[in-house]
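> example.struct
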């Protein structure tokens, strides 16, 4: 079976709909056809200030949401990044093959460092750790949202560079960025991606939102001039975003949905989408809360995952250490 690897940061109590549609839904699909490794990126989380108790809690909550959204620990290896020390170990090696220029050109670094008073070195070296997260497992496929495209390109470059210098070691992975769902936009500001760090939570749908909050956020989503329900991201970004979300949550095509709403108002679409979101996310929310009741069981799943991931990651690391001359 081909292999897939991806991760999500433990930086909030709830994942948002962008993480769910852009990443998690793909994870669930690929576990059927791939040897799948999915991790909670708690080491990436500390590149910006984190509270220790909150980080611990968010790590477990993220794991619970992975499983509640459909990842099956029998099919997917689910683990926490810091429990597999080969990640930071390989990261160091890759940092030494990355130039300062390459790292400081990363858009995420530029955006996030502009927002911080204290810019950590970890924020700059983030993409080397991400490359390590991936290359340790030699995956063919890495499903991510559009915002990670540049980091994936760097990962591929680092793999090729290492292979060229030291002989074939890493598989050069392909990014899987689904065109339709690569970027889910903020409901209040459809020019910006839906994100944990958006100042107003009104534009962000958290997958653990209750029915009332979900409905309110969708009904108050910013729509566009005119009345026609059409998919036109350039001129109608608000409605187009709602159509993308509708389509992803129902597996219906956008064209099909547009045809159904011909002659109807934005309000109709919002009412129905709110219903779809409540129907899809309520079971995820309930299952997450249920899983969080038994933390020992959750921790046991993560321990098993870390053990399985470590076996593969350490074999790759040993090969790398050997090739670069570490005794
Ligand atoms: N809006 C989005 N649309 C589609 N995919 C998205 N992803 C994130 N936002 C969207 C994808 O989710 C995965 C996990 O991302 P992450 O752990 O890096 O989360 P993040 O990027 O930190 O999420 P935020 O909300 O965007 O955080 P901030 O505000 O801190 O930048 C990735 O595959 C990502 O592409």
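> example.seq
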């Amino acid at each position: 079976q081909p292999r897939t690897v991806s991760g999500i940061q433990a930086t909030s109590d709830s994942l948002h709909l962008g993480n769910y549609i852009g990443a998690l839904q793909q994870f669930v699909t690929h576990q059927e056809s791939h040897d799948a490794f999915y991790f909670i990126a708690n080491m990436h989380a500390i590149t910006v200030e984190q509270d220790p108790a909150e980080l611990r809690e968010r790590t477990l909550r993220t794991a619970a949401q992975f499983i509640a959204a459909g990842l099956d620990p029998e099919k997917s290896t689910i683990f926490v990044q810091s429990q597999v020390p080969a990640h930071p170990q390989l990261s160091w090696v890759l940092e030494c093959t990355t130039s300062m220029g390459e790292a400081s050109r990363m858009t995420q670094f530029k955006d996030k460092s502009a927002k911080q008073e204290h810019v950590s070195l970890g924020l700059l070296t983030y993409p080397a750790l991400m490359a390590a997260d991936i290359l340790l497992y030699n995956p063919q496929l890495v499903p991510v949202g559009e915002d990670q495209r540049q980091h994936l390109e760097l990962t591929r470059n680092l793999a090729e560079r290492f292979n060229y210098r030291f002989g074939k070691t890493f598989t050069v992975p392909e990014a899987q960025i689904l065109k339709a769902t690569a970027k889910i936009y903020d409901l209040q500001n459809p020019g910006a991606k839906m994100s944990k760090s958006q100042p107003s939570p009104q534009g962000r749908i958290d997958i653990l939102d209750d029915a009332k909050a979900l409905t309110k956020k969708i009904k108050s989503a910013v729509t566009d001039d005119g009345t026609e329900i059409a998919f036109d991201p350039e001129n109608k970004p608000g409605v187009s975003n709602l159509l993308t979300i509708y389509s992803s949550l129902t597996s219906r095509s956008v064209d099909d949905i547009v045809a159904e709403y011909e002659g109807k108002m934005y309000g109709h679409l919002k009412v129905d989408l709110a219903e779809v979101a409540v129907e899809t996310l309520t079971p995820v929310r309930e299952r997450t809360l249920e899983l969080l009741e038994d933390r020992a069981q959750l921790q046991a799943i993560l321990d098993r995952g870390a053990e399985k991931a470590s076996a593969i990651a350490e074999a790759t690391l040993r090969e790398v250490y050997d090739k670069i001359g570490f005794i």
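> remarks
The radius of gyration is 20 Å.
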